[in-house]
Every structure is written in structure tokens, then in C-alpha cells.
Prior knowledge:
Elements: E1 2-7, H1 14-24, E2 36-44, E3 47-56, E4 59-67, H2 70-87, H3 89-92, E5 129-130, H4 132-142, E6 146-151, E7 157-162, E8 168-172
Parallel strand pairs: 1-2, 5-6
Antiparallel strand pairs: 2-3, 3-4, 6-7, 7-8
Amino acid sequence: MKVNIIGRQMNVWSEMKETIDEKLKKLDKYFSDECTATVTLSSKHNRKCLEITITASGIIFRSEVEDETFRNALDKAVYSIERQIRKNKTRLQRKLRQGAFDNGIFETNEDFEEEKEFTIREKTFSLKPMSVEEAIMQMNLLEHEFFVFKNDKTDEVCVVYKRHDGAYGLINTQQ
Length: 175
């Protein structure tokens, strides 16, 4: 696994880089060598924030954790990604490294309930061209966490969403 470590408005010391590499090696058993992990460290309001994003075989695993120390946040984030893998073991078996789930890797004291069938509720609606501001207003009026719309400037399908920090995000699509 190739690991990229980024410090947002801070320098990441070499001891922390070594700790991150060591902790992420726990996940090597699931991923092939072509996968990449990006670890972003930042400090917000005297809290340490650590985000891990792993891209493997077209699948993205992500965990963002805030804690008092980066080491605690790292432990929680690695545990969260491992939990995601375990919950979706059956679906991921074809996509991840061959034999990743053999040899009793999941023989632990912890009880991870595997994700069952997905319950899908389907909706159909017409895409009305609108500005990003209109889409955010519409999302808020519907009290949704996200809203799909056609951008009136680019004529592309986009998604606006409400972030955990109260800000808004915009996802643009590419053809």
C-alpha cells in the first residue's frame, strides 16, 4: 500500500509518519500493492483531526476522527476502516486482495455483524437547471442532507450536500 501523509497547516514529524505506516500495515492483508492511502492530519480548536482515505480496486474507504491526540485518532480511524471491511466482507471479497478473508482473519473476540441486504428506496424526479445557491435553498426546504440538480452554468449533473461542520459541499460530475 502506498501511503501519502499530509499535514494541513502543520508539519508531520517523522515519528508520527512511522506510526501511521505501522498502523496502516495492519490493513495490507486486505489490499493489493496498487492501493493508495492518504492520511491528512490537522488541528481544529485544540482537537486533533485525522482523516484516512484508502482507494483500492475502484472502492473508496474513508474515516475521519477527532480526538485529543493524533495517536488515539489514528487507532480509531484504522478500527473504523477495518469495521467497514468486515461489515461488507461478502461484497468486498471479489474486489479486494485474493485470499484476504481466508486463514481466520476474522476470528476475534469482537462481534461484527455483517451487512445484510441493502434496503433501497427508489425515487425519480426531473432535473431542473438551477444555480448552486438555488439547489442549497431547495435542499434546506426539503430538510435533506444532499440534493441532486443540473447546474445552469455547466449543464452538468451536480450534488450539493451539508457537511458535518455546517458548511456546504458541491460535487461536480465529469463525462
